[in-house]
Amino acid sequence: MSRHYNVTQDEVASAWKSVKQAGGTCGHDGVTIEDIEKDLDKQLYKIWNRMSSGSYMAKPVLLVNIPKTNGGLRQLGIPTVSDRVAQNVVKNRLESTLEGKFSQDSYAYRPKKSAIDAVAVCRQRCFDYQWVVEVDIKGFFDNIDHDILYGMIEKYTDDKTILLYSKRFMKAKGIDSVTDLESERLKGLPQGGVISPILANLFLHEAFDMWISENFKQLKFERYADDVVVHCVSEKQAYFIRDKIMERLKLFNLELNLEKTRIVYTGKSSDQDHRKHGLSRKFTFLGYDFKPRFWKDKIVFTPGMGSVAMKFIRDKIRTGWNLNKRIYEDLGSIAKSVNSAIRGWINYYGHFRRSELYRLAYVIDNYLAKFVKKKDKLLSWKSVWTKLANLRKANIKLFEHWYTISPTERRAV
After folding, report:
1. pLDDT tens, 109-157?
2. Cα(174)–Cα(213) distance, rounded to whole angstroms?
3. 3-class secondary-structure state, position 182
4. How many CB atoms lie within 10 A of CB 224?
5. Is 380 exposed, middle or buried (0-12, 13-18, 19+ CB in 10 A)?
């Protein structure tokens, strides 16, 4: 049988390993990673056979709504497991083609780059520049123009495997997880698709990164997917750049969300004059609030764990941990089930202004105190906190935050 597309079985096997390592739930067909693994050789052969002959067709993605950190819902599009394998093949090829061409100030979904790297660079540049444009693109992933994106792909590669399957995957239909209704995808990329991040990066590389680097060489920026911060030397320049960005994005059928796109003063002088003009002294980037803080009797503009992130964590503990329904468990079993989440929060938000994590420690302890009180309603609140304090002294490593971020003394406030 002739093969029109030079997909190799090794590529498919490598893509499978990535999918298995990433884990995740099944798509709309109900086939899990474990199901594929039961008949692995046959399943991988089928994917390879269809991809290499050009007959592999993208299946509908399962559309699921999940809470956003800043409120509201985000729609995820979950591909089937076999589609995730096929998308990985295309993603790996695209990455080898594009990675060396992307801007050093683009941080999302890239090897050896992270959100914390972006926050660190942004922090340093806030010392060097006194103004920031906090850019918010309205519904970025949902509004990516397919024709424009496909033209960008053609600019960087003539690999017909990439060209064929990137188009099929970007146009994959959606199927609602609640209603089972199927919908066409005329624009946008499903958040949750394996190939979506690199395609989104390519779109903003062309629409934003290259443009601002070529036309405004003196400016610095950080971009993590569609989260963008641009540093400016003056208020006038900040407004000018904001308007230029708005004009530029319109050429790619994208809009700025003007309610969330803000001009922020990041300098050290008194903020009274800037407040008079309605300018913010705070912006949020990747879960961190950047704002003026006192350090050694001087004002510095630095990042710390954000208030929106804290609210999201509170909601996660309240609704996700379900402590009210687990009163027949002991604190030891509770710890085993929640420590990985606590560790993740500490590891991410503990890089800058670590003292902000004391609030997180108290939030967690407060929910644990409510749990202890519900188990033993005869205990006074003072006795509840004393019991937690004694337990912490006896077994400080029971909960992750007890030995990493909590102050020596804890008390109810």
Report:
1. 998 999 999 999 999 999 999 999 999 999 999 999 999 999 999 999 9
2. 36
3. strand
4. 23
5. exposed
Check if the beta carbon of residue 360 is closer than 8 Å to that of residue 305.
Answer: yes
CA dist 316 and 293 (Å) reads 28
Give the three-state DSSP class for 203.
helix
Residue by residue, DSSP assigns 21-88 as HH-----TT---HHHHHHTHHHHHHHHHHHHHHT---PPPEEEEEEE-TTSSEEEEEE--HHHHHHHH
Say which residues have a Cβ less than 8 Å from residue 286's Cβ, sequence separation at least 6: 115, 118, 119, 224, 227
Query: What is the three-class DSSP state of 101?
Result: helix
The tens digit of pLDDT for each residue in 213-223 reads 999 999 999 99
pLDDT of residue 75: 86
Query: Are 130 and 233 contacting, i.e. CB atoms less than 8 angstroms apart?
Result: yes
Which pLDDT score is estimated for 271?
Answer: 53
Residues 308 and 88: their CA atoms lie apart, in Å, by 33
Residue ranges of the chain with per-residue pLDDT less than 70: 1-3, 69-71, 269-278, 406-413
Measured over the CA atoms of residue 81, residue 65, residue 261 and residue 278, the dihedral's sign is negative
Give me the sheet containing 288-295, strands edge to edge: 283-285, 288-295, 298-305
- Whether 283 and 262 have beta carbons less than 8 Å apart is answered as yes
Query: What pTM does this model have?
Result: 0.89
Q: Which amino acid does the sequence have at 161?
A: T
